[in-house]
Write a structure and sequence with these properties.
With 186 residues, the protein is mainly α. The chain is 45% helix and 11% strand. It contains eight helices and five strands. The strands form two sheets. A three-stranded parallel beta sheet has the order 3-2-4. A two-stranded antiparallel sheet has the order 1-5.
């Protein structure tokens, strides 16, 4: 279902309308100029693929709750709700303050949130988001994320590191515990 959401969201539209072109679409937590970015990822909007994935997953019509702070993220949430509705996913938006949002994502009050983060060019910049041994915003318990991150940390060969980084990003994309939307220009 998360991967279906990844395909349902029109990130390009967000970049062009809400961000007025001052951003670039993201399919990974890696910055666009990183030597470790997996250029083969393509999370561009594909509503037919999203619908197929939902049918395959047996989506039952659950309404998901997304928490957003005020400001432009409310616009993003409305666009996400519209995109998800186009493939049959129900989304309820709650505008809350940041502490309520973070507490609610941890305790299960909210299924999703929209947040900003500062990324770097290193493949494990967002490591804490994928750590199944610690509290994380995605409630991950899949130790495969940790195994892949441990292999990256232990790697001393640049060519092999690129392969491991690509594998990690592809796994993150397929599992979609986070859906990167865009990188905003500074």
């Amino acid at each position: 279902i998360r991967l279906a959401m990844q395909y349902a969201i029109n990130k390009e539209d967000m970049v062009n309308s809400v961000m007025q072109g001052y951003a670039v679409v993201a399919d990974s937590c890696m910055l666009p100029n990183s030597e470790y970015l997996d250029a083969n990822l393509d999370g561009g909007e594909n509503t037919e693929k999203a619908k197929e994935l939902l049918e395959e997953a047996g989506y039952d019509g659950t309404t998901y709750k997304i928490a957003v702070p005020s400001g432009y993220r409310v616009q993003l949430a409305n666009m996400i709700r519209q995109d998800l509705a186009a493939v049959g996913i129900n989304l309820e938006i709650e505008t809350v303050d940041a502490p309520t949002m973070f507490a609610g994502i941890q305790d299960g009050t909210y299924d999703m949130m929209i947040m900003a983060d500062t990324m770097t060019n290193y493949v494990l910049t967002a490591e804490w988001y994928y750590d199944a041994t610690a509290a994380n915003y995605s409630s991950l318990t899949d130790m495969t994320f940790n195994e892949k991150m441990d292999a990256i940390k232990a790697c001393k060969d640049d060519a092999q590191l690129k392969e491991l980084a690509d594998d990690f990003q592809e796994y993150c994309f397929e599992q979609s515990p986070l859906i990167p939307l865009f990188y905003q220009y500074n």
